[in-house]
Structure formats: C-alpha cells, structure tokens
Amino acid sequence: MAYTLVRDLEHRVRLQYIKLSPEKIRQILLSIQVSVLYDTRTNKKFAIPSKISNDAKKIYKLMEVPISSTPYKLCSA
C-alpha cells in the first residue's frame, strides 16, 4: 500500500508541477516544521508553523492539504 501511495504522489507531482523523485518529495515534506509551545498556566498547547518552501506549498496544494502560516491552538486528546 505504501509503495502505491508513494508512486501515486510522484505521478501527481510530475503531471501538475515538476518531476521529483520520491526521495526529493520526502526531503521537501520532512523540512516542514511546527514548534509546539505549552502554556503551563492554562495547560494549553499552541503550534507555530515554520516557513514552507515553494515546492512544499505546491505538493500540499496538489494533495489538497491546508497550509497554515499563523499560530493556532492544538486540541487536547
């Protein structure tokens, strides 16, 4: 299943953007970071996204994944 999903993503990126290897796609997506801050007074967690490369934005858009550039509150599980 994982192999099929990787190949599907590679194919979609190639058709709609540029040709990237699965390893390059992986590196681009791994470069995306979010810092999590924990407020001990209120016991709330907040996420602060890092800047996202243009390649990552394109991949997110192709996969219809929303991109947030503003801090947001994390829901507790």
Describe this structure in words.
The chain contains 3 helices and 3 strands, in the order ααββαβ. By secondary structure, it is an alpha+beta fold. The chain has one domain. The chain has a 3-stranded antiparallel sheet, with no helix packed on it. The longest helix is centred in the first third of the chain and has 15 residues, at 2-16.
Rg estimate, integer Å: 15 Å
- The percentage helix is 40-55%
Number of domains: 1
DSSP summary, beta strand count: 3
Q: How much of the residues is beta strand, in percent?
A: 15-25%
Question: Helix and strand succession?
Answer: HHEEHE
Average pLDDT, rounded to a whole number, is: 91
Lateral arrangement of strands in the main beta sheet: 1-2-3
Structural class of the secondary elements?
alpha+beta
Mind summarizing the main beta sheet?
A: 3 strands, antiparallel
CA-CA gap between termini:
28 Å
Number of H/I helices: 3
